[in-house]
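Renewal narrative, Specific Aim 1. Our central claim is that a sequence can be written position by position from structural information alone. The example that follows is taken directly from our test logs and has not been curated for this report. It begins with the C-alpha cells describing the chain, in the order in which they were read.
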C-alpha cells in the first residue's frame, strides 16, 4: 500500500472512532506493533501510545466506534478484480479468573493438551475477515463482535455474513470451520449471495432419501 493511500485510510478510520478518538487511535497502533502484552498497562509502554496508562481504560470506556461505517471503509480496500475470499470463525477469549466480569459464557475451544475438556469460560467472539493472499497470515477483519449470552455463534455469523455480502460488489467465497457444518447454518445462509465452503467433522454422515437395498457384499456407503 502506498504511503498516500495508507495515510488516507488512517485519517478516514480516525474520524469513525467516536469519543476519545486520539487515545483509541494510539491504542490501536500500540496493539498492532506490540508482539506480547500481558495487560492493558503493557500497551501504555509502547512508544506509539503517548499518554499515561489510565488513558487506555478511559478510551475503552468512552469510545463508540461506528462499526458499520468502519466496515464500509474496510470493504473499499478489497480489490474488485477477483472474487474476495472471506473466512469466518468463532473464538474464545478465556477469562477463567475474572469472576466479576459481566456476562461471561461457556465457549467451545480447542484443547490445550491431551485430556483437556474442549470448553472454556470467558467471552466468545465472531469474526469475518478478508483473506487477501494465498499464503501468509495477514487478514483484514471486516466484522469482529462479541457473542453475548443472549446470542449463539450460528446466528451471529449469519448476521455478519449478510451485512458484509450486501456491501460487496462481487459474490464472495466464504470458508468456515466444522462448527458451522450443520443444517441450521446452511439453511439460514441459503439466501445470502455467497458461496460457502465448510469443513466437516470426520464422524459426520450424509444420507439421501433413496431406500437402502440390503445385499451381500460391502456395506452401504454414506454420502
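The sequence written for that structure reads:
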Amino acid at each position: 500500500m502506498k504511503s498516500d493511500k495508507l495515510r488516507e485510510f488512517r485519517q478516514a478510520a480516525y474520524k469513525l472512532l467516536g469519543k476519545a478518538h486520539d487515545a483509541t487511535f494510539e491504542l490501536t497502533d500500540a496493539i498492532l506493533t506490540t508482539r506480547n502484552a500481558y495487560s492493558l498497562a503493557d500497551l501504555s509502554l509502547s512508544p506509539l501510545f503517548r499518554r499515561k496508562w489510565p488513558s487506555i481504560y478511559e478510551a475503552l470506556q468512552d469510545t463508540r466506534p461506528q462499526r458499520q461505517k468502519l466496515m464500509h471503509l474496510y470493504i473499499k480496500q478489497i480489490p474488485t478484480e477477483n472474487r474476495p475470499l472471506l473466512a469466518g470463525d468463532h473464538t474464545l477469549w478465556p477469562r477463567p479468573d475474572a469472576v466479576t466480569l459481566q456476562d461471561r459464557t461457556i465457549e467451545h475451544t480447542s484443547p490445550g493438551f491431551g485430556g483437556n475438556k474442549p470448553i472454556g469460560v470467558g467471552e466468545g467472539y465472531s469474526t469475518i475477515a478478508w483473506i487477501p493472499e494465498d499464503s501468509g497470515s495477514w487478514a483484514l477483519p471486516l466484522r469482529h463482535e462479541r457473542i453475548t449470552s443472549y446470542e449463539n455463534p450460528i446466528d451471529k455469523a449469519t448476521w455478519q455474513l449478510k451485512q458484509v455480502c450486501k456491501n460487496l460488489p462481487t459474490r464472495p467465497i466464504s470458508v468456515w470451520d466444522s462448527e458451522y457444518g450443520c443444517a441450521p447454518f446452511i439453511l439460514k445462509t441459503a439466501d445470502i449471495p455467497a458461496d460457502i465452503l465448510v469443513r466437516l467433522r470426520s464422524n459426520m454422515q450424509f444420507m439421501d432419501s433413496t431406500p437402502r437395498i440390503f445385499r451381500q457384499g460391502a456395506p452401504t456407503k454414506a454420502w
